[in-house]
Amino acid sequence: MEQFTASIIAKYNYWIYVTLMMIGFYAMIGKRNLVKKLIGMNIFQTAIILMFVSSGVKIGAKIPILDKHKALEHGIGVAGVVNPLPHVLMLTAIVVSVSVTGVALAILLRIYRKYGTLDEDEILEKLGK
Amino acid sequence: MTVPNLHIYVLAAPLLTAFFVNLFGRRSNTVIAILTIGSLTFSSLASLVVMSGILKHGQINYVVGNWQAPYGIELVVDHLSALMLVLISVVALLASMSALKSVSQEVPGREHQLFTLYLILIAGLMGLVLTGDTFNLYVMLEITSITAYGLIAMGKGRAPLASFNYVIMGSVGACFYLLGVGYLYLMTGSLNMADIYQILQTMDGGAAVATAFAFILIGLWIKMAFFPLHGWLPNAYSLAPTGVALIAAPLMTKVTIYLMVRVMFSVFSAEYNFVQHQLAQNIIVWTAAVGIICASAMALAQRDLKRMLSYIIVAEVGYMVGGIWLANETGMTGAILHIVNDALMTLCLFLAVAAIIYRLGSCEFDQLQGIYRKMPITMAAFTVGAFSMIGIPPTAGFFSKWYLLLGGIEAGQWGYVVALLFSSLVNAILFFRIIEIGFFHRDGEPHSHEEAAKAPLSMQIPLMVSAATLIIIGLSSGSLVDAIIKLTIPIGF
Q1: Which residues on chain A are in Cβ contact (under 8 Å) with B179?
Q2: Contact B182 A52 (CB under 8 A)
Q3: What are phi and psi of B266, to 5 degrees?
Q4: Residue-range domain boundaries for chain B
Q5: What value of ipTM does the predicted structure carry?
Q6: Which residues on A lie below 8 Å from B138 (Cβ)?
Q7: B239, B157 in Cβ contact below 8 A?
Q8: Is A96 in contact with B139 (Cβ distance < 8 A)?
Q9: Nearest C-alpha of chain B: how many angstroms from A81?
Q10: B351 touching chain A per CB within 8 A
């Protein structure tokens, strides 16, 4: 048990991302309101972004802004700076996630105008008539 | 004639034209037609030149922005991606000719918006087959998906609802893919496909790499609508505007299958896929078999031609995924040949559907009575496409199905073989039912539904070209396999 707790604490960032991801996944599947589904999708995407960003962290490291001349002369102490690549990748992923959300909201607007509701059950009821 | 970096222009042409369509297309549809067809004709010709260059000189690696791989983003054109590039640009060209007419009837006044997205979608698909970087692949995947969400939502009736469902499912798929890439990056420290391949050879990845592999595969399966993750596809494709279905149905699932092949053999190795995960391999082939049978059965229950074809697409995805996971050369040859053939025959059938809808306003089975007398040319081409779907020689569908069957027998996967035969039988029933309705049922009384318009020549020419291509590809499939497809299969299988 102690070992198990220790392993959770040692890699707590991954446990947080998995928990968040499951919350998002539940909202996407379990909720009947379309906006809640969309929010679930956002939580899901954010969880993955957190996973990437946390993987770049090094304890006690500085931000990766370097003096060019110093770096060329003395080299870079890799342990002294955080890994910037996952952060940069996630910048792109955030842009993607924002655009998906934008498109989804526009679609929701059309659904609302057409059916007057955003509840999946009510929409299905209206379609059934 | 050699132009350096011609393959990048193949992608750039539709991408840049998209913005001009949005700017200048508001005034007149002629401008949209000239820009769209012009750029896609250029792409088609250029991709053929790229293809012949690849056949002569082999693979091209292009470094974007002069950042050397593995740090920069690399574009890789090998035999398979060149083949896909030709396929995408030619299918897009034929589809867009017909779509121009169909769109101006179905979504009048918004053509410039639709074709802007349409061209970006095509550019995204081309980017998918060109890229050699796993993260870049994610971005391209989302470019194609986001444009597809918007395009599908332009349809009538329940289309926005179908599109929203696709947004949710598609995002889960893309996120799973991204998660898999994240795991691979944590393990190898690289995003370049060839580089990851090299690093994975030297390390024992264990559970983390296996998780990455599983996440990437499941993500792509959601995107390609592999049974049982296909829930979004039938609604999305049958409710989308016909012009959109024309491009989405032949290309999107097929390109995603190409991506699966790429990930399996360019990032992971054949040995990793098939030797280390033998149980998974069996499960996947069985799932494909069950998927083929279920999707074919559901196709039987449909009373609308477009919906029926959507379910057939789901069954065809099962053919190709199963064929690749048979893990022998014959099966893989069949699957890759089937990517080409299925794209062309789906195109042919959907072009026929577009012409029928243009004329009749709908393609429910009741509407199709006596259709052979009304639209003889369209239906002749439709019959060729249908024969190819069933797998009657000398149409293209027969040859790839033959390879898949032989591969299944060679691998001893009898469930898959039975599923293939069952699905061919169901396809025969499905299409002969339509031929029966269209050819033998006479409509005694004149239709209550008024006819919209006569299908114009610009819808019939691409239809006839695609039907002819099916027969030509069918007759030359031996040389296609020898010249290109044999070279794309990893050595030793």
Answers
A1: 48, 51
A2: yes
A3: -100, -25
A4: 272-493
A5: 0.91
A6: 93, 96
A7: yes
A8: yes
A9: 16
A10: no
Full residue range of the structural domain in which residue A101 is found: 2-128
The Cα of B102 is separated from the nearest Cα of chain A by a number of Å equal to 23
Q: For an interface test with B, give the residue of A23, A57, A96, A124 to mutate (most B CBs within 10 A).
A: A96
In this prediction the pTM is 0.91
Interface residue B179 vs chain A (CB under 8 A): yes
B138 vs A: CB within 8 A: yes
For residue B403, what are the contacts with CB-CB under 8 A and spacing of at least 6? B323, B330, B331, B333, B334, B337, B338
Please answer yes or no on whether A93 and B178 come within 8 Å at the CB atom: yes
**Residue type at B471 in one-letter notation:** I
Evaluated on CA atoms B291, B296, B299, B305, the torsion sign reads: positive
Tokens of A59: 């304890």
The mean pLDDT values, 10 residues at a time, for chain B of 493 residues are 74 89 82 87 90 83 77 84 90 89 81 88 92 90 92 86 90 92 88 86 80 90 86 86 88 91 85 75 89 90 87 90 85 88 91 86 78 81 88 85 88 87 90 84 54 70 87 83 76 55
pLDDT value for A102: 92
8 Å CB contact of A99 and B146: yes
Task: Tell me how many domains chain A contains.
Answer: 1
Instruction: With CA atoms as reference, report the closest residue to B464 among B374, B361, B348.
Output: B348
User: Hey, which residues does A33 pair with through a beta bridge?
Assistant: A119
Q: Which residue from B135, B172, B182 is facing A51, i.e. has the nearest CB? A: B182
B148 to chain A, any CB pair closer than 8 A? The answer is no
- A to B CB pairs, distance under 8 Å: 71
Per-residue pLDDT, B448:
47
Looking at the complex, does the CB of residue B180 fall below 8 Å from at least one CB of chain A? Answer: no
Rounded to whole angstroms, how far apart are CA atoms B171 and B146? 9
Query: What residues 272-301 of chain B have any CB closer than 8 A to a CB of chain A?
Result: none
Contacts of B219 in chain A (CB under 8 A): none
Asked if A111 and B139 come within 8 Å (Cβ–Cβ), the reply is no
Nearest CA in chain A to B150: A103
Contact A45 B171 (CB under 8 A): yes
d(CA B168, CA A41): 7
B352 phi and psi angles, rounded to 5 deg: -65, -45
Q: Does B171 touch chain A (CB under 8 A)?
A: yes
CATH assignment of the domain containing A119: 1.10.287.3510
